[in-house]
Amino acid sequence: MLRLFEEFLLFKADNDGLSARSVRAYRDILLRFETWLAGADPLRVDGDQLLAWGGPYLHKVLRLAPVSRTPYIACIRELYRYLSSVRGLMRANPAAALPYPRKRGRLPRAMSLANAERLMWSPDLASFEGVRDAAMLAVLLGCGLRVAGLVSLNVSHVRREQVDGEWRLLLQPSEKGGKERLLPVPREADLLLRIYLEHPALAEIDCALDGGDRVLFVTTRNRRCPAHAYYGERRRFSTRGVLAMIVRHGRAAGIEAAQLHPHALRHLYGTELAEGNVDLLERQKLMGHADPKSTAVYTHLAVRRLTGSVDRANPLAKVSSPASQLLEEMGSRPRR
Fold it and tell me: How far apart are CA 198 and CA 92, in angstroms?
């Protein structure tokens, strides 16, 4: 890879706090960009060439959908901002006008409350793995964590503090961009998490990390890891492992496949906060969104609250009509 690109990646990691996962993604994108350059100097590329790369090349040659092209555009925009504004190697930024692809605004697909209930009853609490899975599902549902935030949790990220005279658990996950936030753990998840942490089987598992911390949610089998090396960081769940766990329990509970992914649980959390009329800024903090527009999406999913408001306040609810009389006779409408 070109030295300029390597220096850019180091800058993003050291100065902008880009996560290791994002650095790897940027590296893959820059390798493809270097292939497209075909030996040309990246400092001599102009805006028209970048438009051709970001549009026809990504779409027709790499066959990327709009949502998949977005990180490519973001990476190249950041690269040329670095080369022009930070390093001063270019007089102008040729990527300044490089547009992001338009995406269709789709509402997120949330798991239903009924399916969440069925999912929570699926793990076998008589086994250590069942207790662990129930605690993980409870944290996903009760705290709205991203799956990356869940698997990165260590024991030190679980804090115990007194709130209104009661000892409660708080989580301090590190998610997108290494940003940390403090989350109250609801009582139901609090209980399951305490049962998991105090389980005698957990005490027998070597999940210690350098520095004295421990992996929070541990695996009990890993076919790719030899027994003598199966300790510490290698005990940590992968994001794929969490997905497999949700799918396994979801299928056993008879839940449709479309709702069996970690983000469906997070979407339910966001939706229920909106249903509960939690303030937008509070919801933004709890969800860990940098942009309030991301949080506002869940307001559109608050169907129960919106339905209740419509039933109470629409004009038909305040006048007598053939329909209102029928509803009263059926017991579906309260008498005025």
Answer: 59
